[in-house]
UniProtKB/TrEMBL annotation:
This is Transcriptional regulator. InterPro entries: Split_barrel_FMN-bd, TR_PAI2-type. Gene3D superfamilies: Electron Transport, Fmn-binding Protein, Chain A.
Length: 199
């Protein structure tokens, strides 16, 4: 989390929306084998927890149940050029949106894992155009075999640490120029966040 309080938010709805929109993150854990990170789809339960699944053979899975772990979700980010400021006598920076979630992890039972998978499929298939794919299209034997290769986990969030670094420390004219520059240079999502959140 960035140390500047200007870049923090207590807006839980916004933070839940970030998890939902991004839908993917990293799970970090210090294990007896050393520090480990796993990349995984995420699903917010809406009541203070996030769920995820990992390959059974992933080096982090045997240490997760009962541990305190960190989940990181990265939103849009982009380079901010001093050419976009009213006064160019400064240095470049980077604007970004990120969320760290710290909490206790528990392993889900088979029913919980299956429920997580169906919820992820429904959410992501619903975002695509055309006829959605259904898990029922997978032969039952194949589904059971693939399900046996993964483990489901739920992290009960004890600490939310967001960073929304959106040039809030700059005057409105500079923020408008930064948003325009980011939009033109291929970061329209970050530009939109600056326009809507950094007031």
């Amino acid at each position: 989390m960035h140390p500047n309080p200007l870049f923090r938010s207590e807006d839980r709805t916004l933070l839940e929306a970030l998890i939902d929109e991004v839908g993917f993150g990293m799970v970090f854990l210090t294990t007896p084998d050393g520090p480990r990170v796993a990349h995984t789809p995420l699903l917010s339960t809406g009541d203070g927890a996030v769920q995820f699944h990992l390959a059974r053979g992933n080096g982090i899975t045997r240490w997760l149940d009962g541990a305190t772990a960190l989940v990181a979700v990265n939103g849009p980010d982009g380079y901010v050029s001093p050419r976009w400021y009213g006064d160019r006598a400064t240095v470049p920076t980077w604007d970004y949106v990120a969320l760290e979630l710290e909490g206790r992890v528990r392993r889900m039972d088979a029913d919980g894992l299956e429920g997580l998978l169906h919820a992820l499929i429904l959410r992501h298939e619903g975002r695509l155009e055309g006829e959605p794919w259904s898990a029922a299209e997978t032969p039952p034997d194949m589904w059971r075999k693939l399900l046996g290769g993964i483990l489901g986990f739920e992290l009960e969030v004890l600490a939310w640490r967001p960073t929304l670094k959106l040039s809030q420390n700059k005057p409105p004219a500079d923020r408008n120029a930064i948003a325009a520059g980011l939009a033109q240079s291929g970061s329209p999502a970050l530009a939109q966040l600056i326009r809507t959140l950094a007031r």
